[in-house]
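Quick note —
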Amino acid sequence: MTLTEEQIHRYARHIVIPEIGGKGQEKLLAAKVLLVGAGGLGSPVALYLAGAGVGTLGIMDGDTVSLSNLQRQIIHTTADIGRLKVDSAKDAINHINPDVQVITYPEYASVENILQIMSAYDLVLDCCDNFATRYLVNDAAVLLKKPFIYGSVMRFDGQAAVFYPPQGPCYRCLFPEAPPPGAVPTCQEAGVMGVLPGLIGMVQATETIKFILGAGDLLLGKLLVYDALAMDFMKIQIGPNPECAVCGNQPTITALHADNYQQLPCPSE
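Predicted structure written out below.
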């Protein structure tokens, strides 16, 4: 890939960075990234990856924009209420950067669709608010050997990590089983400070860019925990679990079965 004159101007602040340069920008333009969720986390991720020139963004979400989304889901506007989130997000990305090809999937992740969709991408980002979807996407990423960039938020707290066996653990290594239904409140029930998904989403976008470039130290084998009230960041070392059901030495999850993923589908928060 050769950068056009317009692209050289558009990405000039990237190109002057030695760790990126023209070759790195070409890698970004050639990359294909799937976002599962176009809500609070998916909004900053999509906007910043589009600005950075990630060439193909897949956006998967079956939800529509509602008034209560707008406190944090900054890719959408009041005029988008009632529209599919994937359509609203695509319009916003097209306004930012026409270099980016946006492929929309107006559906929720499921056992029936996730493997086929994810197989076309280089890496996948978890931008959902649903344990069942998170485990489904994690397991599909392990089966397809795709890196999985995780983020979650609730109230004033957020987490982020990069999962990519065998180079590091998967999500199930850290949390082997989903909590029982109703044991953990959703963002709708517990609330979330509006700026929090923006911060965690930008961490996810940063790790995505670093992964594509092969630059810096990833949150691989590390869980980033953020407390907004204390303005405190903490990194916890995590490692592969040899008894993990999906990436361990004797995995029991070798295919996707609907019984393993309850409460699907769920709108993204």
